[in-house]
């Protein structure tokens, strides 16, 4: 899978993730991140438990032409460190992996790379067009 450069995540997308994680707790929220150009703008939601995540991922992986920037899931317990299964999952699904915990606000998440090392993921204010905003961002 191609690893593309990512500039950040759209604020609306992060807010969606935080909201979904909050409303899913105490169950886990999980999804795959997709980028439009260099910005993560899409979340493909996976069924929400640690045990089912891998099989759901495998099914999504089979979709043609699917490019995944990374993943997101919540740890309703609040520990934001990746587990061993998380690290295995990270190594297969792109290079930007968000773990969200309570209180599910803009400070309560961490991004890791495919090896489980913390990395920065800037929050970007992006205007969404209905059709396609390509790379012409302000
Ligand atoms: Zn986890």
UniProtKB/TrEMBL annotation:
Q: Name one Pfam family in it.
A: Prok-JAB
Instruction: Give the coiled coil ranges.
Output: none
- Name the keywords, alphabetized: Hydrolase, Metal-binding, Metalloprotease, Protease, Zinc
Gene3D superfamilies, sorted: Cytidine Deaminase, domain 2
**Superkingdom, according to UniProt?**
Archaea
Cite a single GO BP annotation.
proteolysis
A GO MF term: metal ion binding
Every copy of the MPN domain together lies at 7-118
Q: Which SUPFAM superfamilies match?
A: JAB1/MPN domain
Q: Tell me the protein's name.
A: MPN domain-containing protein
Q: Which organism is it from?
A: Methanothrix soehngenii (strain ATCC 5969 / DSM 3671 / JCM 10134 / NBRC 103675 / OCM 69 / GP-6)
């Amino acid at each position: 899978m191609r690893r593309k450069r990512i500039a950040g995540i759209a604020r609306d997308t992060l807010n969606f993730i935080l909201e979904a994680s909050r409303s899913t707790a105490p169950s886990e929220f999980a999804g795959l991140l997709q980028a439009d150009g260099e910005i993560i703008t899409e979340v493909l939601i996976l069924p929400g438990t640690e045990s089912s995540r891998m099989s759901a991922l495998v099914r999504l992986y089979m979709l043609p032409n699917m490019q995944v920037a990374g993943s997101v899931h919540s740890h309703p317990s609040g520990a934001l460190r990746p587990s061993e299964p998380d690290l295995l999952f990270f190594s297969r699904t792109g290079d930007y992996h968000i773990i969200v915990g309570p209180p599910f606000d803009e400070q309560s998440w961490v991004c890791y790379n495919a090896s489980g090392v913390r990395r920065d993921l800037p929050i970007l204010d992006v205007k969404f067009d209905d059709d396609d905003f390509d790379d012409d961002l302000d």
